[in-house]
Amino acid sequence: MKFDAVVIGGGITGLGIALGWARAGQKVQLIEERKLGAGTSANSHRIIHGGFRFLPKLKLGLATESAVCLSQLLNLYPEQVIPINCFLPLRDSGFKFTWPLSVGCQLYNHTVRRLALLKGKGVFSGAQVVGKDQLREPILESLSPLMRWSDGYLVDHFGLIRRLKEEFQSFSGVVDEESRVISVRQMDRKQDGIVVRYESADLNGEIGERENLARLAFIAIGRSLSQASLELIDFSPFKELAPRWCQAVNLVFRSEKSIDFGLAGKLADGRLLFVGPRPEGFALGTAYWAEGETSKQDFEIERFLEQGAELFPQFDISQANLARVELGQLPIKDWLSEGQPAFLDETTFQVIDNALIHVIATKYTTFLSTADRAGKLGRRLLS
Ligand SMILES: Cc1cc2nc3c(=O)[nH]c(=O)nc-3n(C[C@H](O)[C@H](O)[C@H](O)COP(=O)(O)OP(=O)(O)OC[C@H]3O[C@@H](n4cnc5c(N)ncnc54)[C@H](O)[C@@H]3O)c2cc1C
């Protein structure tokens, strides 16, 4: 089989890239070991960051990119992504005065938001510091003053994946689910192509080996994929590029009372703890530990439960109500001395031998712009 491009890894990043390329008229194949979206993408906390969280670090580019992506998603997939109000209590967050935050909110409303609206037409309600009398949710009153901003909420993860898959197939994209890539090899340098070998389950129900030729391959990376990538035959530089990973977790709780807002709290060690809505109640995210430290898992979850219950006593955060533990992996830069991971904030692209593009994205939010940038990079390599 011959393709213009083969995308390896069908999480939100790979699916976005495959769709972007197919839409541009390329013949594209997407290979996914499990079902599409079954990896880390299934376990996101489901917040589509509108960019506000990047402002304190003065990452204006990332803030604008996120705001644009959010507004595009609200427009394109209104059944799957809805606006959500998010709150941060100010009293215990180390803010003596609220006026610098009010100024920051105005700055955001007038610049980032305006830029995003220009490109996307999304609906943002803006950001502001709010007091008790302006709060509609009684559960939040005891926490005021709060800072309020608007993000997106992914209500239907598999619905979004299904929509993207259908769109991809409508542009003649080929999806191979339950097919595991075992190697990627460059052909003769003079020839324009690479070979992707994979085991496919759809050969009369048997596991069989297949081989594809492609002019370009994208590895849209998840953790297991980075392990598999070590088996890549001829791309030895790849080994040095393998990212470090940490385990990340959301705890999902059953509750009679469902919430329709997000609430962030600051822990003593500076970590943000976030409560978000879920159909069965609410979810608490996110705790981390370094990959490989499996012995730390129970300890970290226990600690996370205790910290959550202490910070937000108005929610019933207890072991008895714990419905589910959602586990995923995130690529990291470093592990800081305060016990926190430092994440890669922005999507990274690494080009290997002008034929393979290795993409790592740490946010669900920006998959549309990741697809766009990957597409431009791919076209440049092929021209
Ligand atoms: C607990 C948690 C909470 C998060 N919360 C948020 C949030 O609120 N907002 C946000 O924007 N982001 C959030 N994120 C980050 C976001 O979920 C991820 O950045 C994103 O889902 C990564 O998508 P991906 O496609 O790169 O990886 P994945 O979804 O992991 O996709 C990689 C795919 O590759 C496949 N694969 C692996 N090896 C092979 C092989 N050899 N052959 C074929 N296929 C293979 C895997 O099966 C997998 O489906 C969170 C992450 C975690 C873990």
Protein architecture, described:
There is one protein chain. The chain is of the alpha+beta class and 383 residues long. The chain folds into 3 domains: 2-41 and 159-243 and 345-382, FAD/NAD(P)-binding domain (3-Layer(bba) Sandwich); 65-73 and 80-151, no CATH class; 244-343, D-Amino Acid Oxidase, subunit A, domain 2 (D-Amino Acid Oxidase, Chain A, domain 2, 2-Layer Sandwich), CATH 3.30.9.10. The protein contains 9 helices and 18 strands. The chain has helices at residues 12-23, 60-76, 99-110, 112-120, 157-170, 223-229, 237-241, 296-311, 367-382, and strands at 2-8, 28-31, 47-48, 81-89, 128-130, 146-154, 174-176, 179-186, 194-203, 206-220, 244-254, 261-266, 272-278, 281-290, 322-335, 341-343, 348-352, 356-360. Strands 3, 4, 5, 6, 11, 12, 13, 14, 15 and 16 form a 10-stranded mixed beta sheet that branches. Strand 8 (179-186) and strand 9 (194-203) form a beta hairpin. Helix 1 (12-23) runs parallel beside helix 5 and helix 2 runs parallel beside helix 4. It is globular, with a radius of gyration of 22 Å. The model has no long low-confidence stretch (mean pLDDT 87). Residues 8-14, 31-34, 38-41, 43-47, 49, 180-181, 220-222, 224-225, 228, 248-250, 285-286, 328, 330, 361-365 line the site of flavin-adenine dinucleotide.
